């Protein structure tokens, strides 16, 4: 292994992984076989060097990804060819991913898996890890397009994926555990796993006005008008701090200030809460090491904050809006 790759692998421990676009995404439109222009690849942003490192080379075909801590893999779905049908009156246009692939970038080796698993003519793909035959396996839930003649029904199938061999094996059923991706021609959804070490009487939408840190037994009460969002909660690498976003209690308020979300950090040992920022975006925070937090800051930007000083130390400027799970970052603008 070369010196550059060894250095790169070492930097992954502090990196934040982003879906970065080099041009604005253009959804597929028209009728027939068309190209979906995502213009996106997976990058690692390394705070200590203030550099982006490109990890995938798919000609901009990456649609979505998630980071699996257990296998040190960035699992992603890539697709470019789409077949669109003429929509019926008062109905949404339907599309088929003519050729999609599931692959992964292995952080421990600094290399992508050489053999992606291909899917043809899929309405949608859902990718996740599950326990199958007492083993943790990567699974794809594929919904295929309706066939012709006697085979008009859309079929739903589950497959165990082997990214080393580029093969898939059918399985009757599998239950998702942890993070998962849902991808179709017009929608991508990445959902996270529930945070551990935090207890609360969570509402139906995963929000609470009060929660408890199990290890230190500290109770955290949210400021008036705000609710803690469970899906946004993430521990720092050393579990000394918990970062999370809030949701307004009244999202339909006529007052703009009542609709603003916030990003908070809690010291696990003391229960001290610090507000890092207020933002209009869906600002799920992500850790880069134990002291740096990144989150969507509205208007297509991602803020880089030092949680000790509570100061913005940099900003990833983007052309398209950053979302809670996938961020877009053509270039980085750092403050001295």
Walk me through this protein's architecture.
This protein folds into 2 domains: 30-37 and 56-191, no CATH class; 198-316 and 329-334, Lipocalin. A hairpin with a 4-residue loop joins strand 18 (210-213) and strand 19 (218-221). It has one helix at 3-11; strands at residues 16-21, 32-35, 40-46, 51-54, 62-68, 73-79, 81-84, 95-106, 111-112, 117-132, 135-144, 156-162, 167-171, 180-184, 188-191, 198-200, 207-208, 210-213, 218-221, 226-229, 234-235, 241-248, 261-267, 273-279, 286-288, 292-296, 301-306, 311-317, 331-334. The radius of gyration is 21 Å and the shape is globular. The protein contains 1 helix and 29 strands. The strands form 5 sheets. Strands 2, 5, 6, 7, 8, 9, 10, 11, 12, 13, 14 and 15 form a 12-stranded antiparallel β-sheet that branches. The chain has 336 residues and is mainly beta.
Task: Itemize the secondary structure elements and their pairings.
Blueprint: H1 3-11, E1 16-21, E2 32-35, E3 40-46, E4 51-54, E5 62-68, E6 73-79, E7 81-84, E8 95-106, E9 111-112, E10 117-132, E11 135-144, E12 156-162, E13 167-171, E14 180-184, E15 188-191, E16 198-200, E17 207-208, E18 210-213, E19 218-221, E20 226-229, E21 234-235, E22 241-248, E23 261-267, E24 273-279, E25 286-288, E26 292-296, E27 301-306, E28 311-317, E29 331-334
Antiparallel strand pairs: 1-3, 2-7, 3-4, 5-6, 6-8, 7-8, 8-9, 8-10, 10-11, 10-14, 11-12, 12-13, 14-15, 16-18, 17-20, 18-19, 20-22, 21-22, 22-23, 23-24, 25-26, 26-27, 27-28, 28-29
């Amino acid at each position: 292994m070369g010196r550059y790759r060894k250095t790169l692998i070492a930097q992954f421990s502090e990196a934040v992984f982003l879906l970065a676009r080099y041009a604005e995404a253009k959804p597929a439109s028209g009728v027939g076989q068309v190209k979906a222009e995502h213009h996106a690849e997976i990058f690692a942003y390394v705070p200590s060097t203030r550099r982006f490192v490109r990890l995938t080379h798919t000609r901009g075909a990456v649609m979505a990804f998630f980071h699996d801590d257990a296998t040190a893999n960035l699992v992603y779905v890539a697709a470019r060819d789409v077949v669109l049908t003429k929509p019926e009156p008062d109905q949404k246009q339907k599309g088929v991913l003519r050729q999609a692939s599931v692959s992964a970038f292995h952080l421990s080796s600094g290399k992508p898996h050489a053999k992606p698993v291909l899917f043809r003519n899929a309405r949608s793909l859902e990718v996740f890890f599950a326990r199958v035959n007492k083993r943790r396996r990567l699974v794809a839930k594929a919904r295929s397009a309706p066939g012709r003649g006697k085979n008009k029904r859309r079929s739903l199938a589950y497959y165990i994926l082997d990214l080393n061999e580029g093969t898939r094996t059918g399985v009757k059923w599998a239950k998702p555990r942890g993070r998962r991706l849902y991808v179709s021609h017009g929608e991508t959804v990445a959902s996270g796993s529930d945070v551990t070490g935090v207890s609360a009487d969570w509402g139906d939408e995963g929000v609470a006005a009060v929660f408890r840190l199990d290890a230190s037994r500290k109770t955290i009460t949210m400021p008036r008008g705000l609710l803690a969002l469970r899906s946004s909660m993430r521990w720092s690498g050393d579990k000394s701090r918990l970062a999370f976003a809030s949701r307004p209690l009244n999202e339909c308020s006529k007052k703009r200030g009542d609709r603003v979300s916030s990003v908070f950090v809690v010291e696990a040992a003391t229960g001290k809460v610090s507000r890092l920022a207020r933002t209009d975006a869906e600002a799920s925070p992500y850790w880069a090491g134990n002291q740096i937090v990144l989150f969507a800051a509205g208007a297509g930007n991602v803020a880089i904050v030092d949680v000790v000083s509570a100061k913005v130390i940099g900003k990833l400027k983007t052309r398209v809006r950053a979302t809670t799970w996938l961020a877009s970052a053509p270039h980085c603008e750092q403050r001295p």
